Amino acid sequence: MSVMLRLAHRAILRRRRPPSSAVTVYAVRMDWADRTHQFVDRRSSPELALLAAARLRAYWRRSPVRPTLSVAALSEHEFALHRRRRDCRSPDCAVAASVESRSVVA
Ligand SMILES: [Zn+2]
Predict the structure, then answer these.
(1) Which domain of life is it from (predicted)?
(2) What is the number of domains present in the chain?
(3) Would residue 11 count as lying in a domain?
(4) How far is the CA of 84 from the centre of ligand 1 (A)?
(5) How far is CA 54 from CA 27, 69, 77, in A?
(6) How far is the CA of 64 from the centre of ligand 1 (A)?
(7) Is the CB of residue 82 less than 8 Å from the CB of residue 28?
(8) From ligand 1's centre to the CA of 106, what distance in Å?
(9) 44 C-alpha to center of ligand 1: Å?
(10) Per-residue pLDDT in tens (0 to 9) along the chain, 106 residues
């Protein structure tokens, strides 16, 4: 690795910081029929998260199983922790202020 590359790499590493619990992010919460949920599409504002939810709703529209989509505010740290959790059913997780779309079981 050249000196210039090594310096650039070091600068990138310095900029990376761990997810903060003080930073609020907005994510789409997907609630499934089996009562599990997941958070996807982390965004910096609720408006951007609503757009992401609209895209997801369009994606799932023709599926026989559709998740209930909502936008939830949570900390950057919570979002990072939740990504590693599978089949989460915890009632303590962030819930939505408003529901974007309800699931429909065909
Ligand atoms: Zn959860």
Answers:
(1) Bacteria
(2) 1
(3) no
(4) 10
(5) 12, 9, 25
(6) 24
(7) no
(8) 25
(9) 20
(10) 688 888 888 877 777 777 888 899 999 999 999 999 999 999 999 999 999 999 999 999 999 999 999 999 999 999 999 988 889 999 999 887 655 555 444 3
Q: What is the CA radius of gyration of the chain?
A: 17
Is the Cβ–Cβ distance between 77 and 19 less than 8 Å? Answer: yes
Q: Is 1 contained in some domain?
A: no
The answer to whether 75 and 20 have CB atoms below 8 angstroms apart is yes
Which range marks the domain in which residue 67 is found? 19-101
* Residue 4 CA to ligand 1 centre (angstroms): 43
Ligand 1 centroid to 82 CA: how many Å? 6
43 Cα–ligand 1 center, Å: 18
